[in-house]
Each structure stands twice: as structure tokens, then as C-alpha cells.
Specification:
Blueprint lengths: L1 E9 L4 H9 L4 E6 L6 E7 L2 H11 L6 E8 L6
Antiparallel strand pairs: 1-3, 1-4, 2-3
């Protein structure tokens, strides 16, 4: 399994529509509305890097209202 953390900047008026759309993706384990530089943070689990790439490039970035993403690949789970 591959785990990634995706930080999302969104249009302010679209946050709830975006989270509803993201919640439909079974690979997204957690979706958080947050304060600070980003609006939404998600954790994604995929079978491998290719599947992760597909989830991000074919699904997440195409959700209406998402302006920018930044993805971090988890190297190791400590706790």
C-alpha cells in the first residue's frame, strides 16, 4: 500500500461541494477542512504508485473548485 497526504487550495465558495465529491472516492481515507495556507487535507491510500498517480491526476485535480494541490508521499508509518 502507498499512502499520500494531499493538501488542497480551493475556491472559498466550493469547499463543501469539493469535500462531497472527494468523499465519493474510496481511496480517500480522511478528509479534513483546515485553517492556514490550505483549505482541505486528505489522506489517500492506493495499491501502488501508479494507482496513486491515477487517483490524483485523473480524479482529485479535476474536481470542480480545486485550484491547486500539493502531494506528500508517506515513507513510513510511525504510529
Amino acid at each position: 500500500m502507498v499512502t499520500a497526504i494531499v493538501l488542497i487550495n480551493s475556491k472559498p465558495t466550493c469547499i463543501h461541494e469539493i469535500t462531497a465529491e472527494l468523499a465519493r472516492l474510496p481511496e480517500l481515507r480522511d478528509i479534513y477542512l483546515v485553517t492556514g495556507e490550505y483549505d482541505i487535507i486528505c489522506t489517500v491510500q492506493a495499491t501502488d504508485n501508479r494507482a496513486l498517480s491515477t487517483i490524483i491526476t485523473q480524479h482529485i485535480v479535476h474536481v470542480n473548485g480545486i485550484e491547486r494541490t500539493k502531494t506528500f508521499l508517506a515513507l513510513e508509518t510511525v504510529k
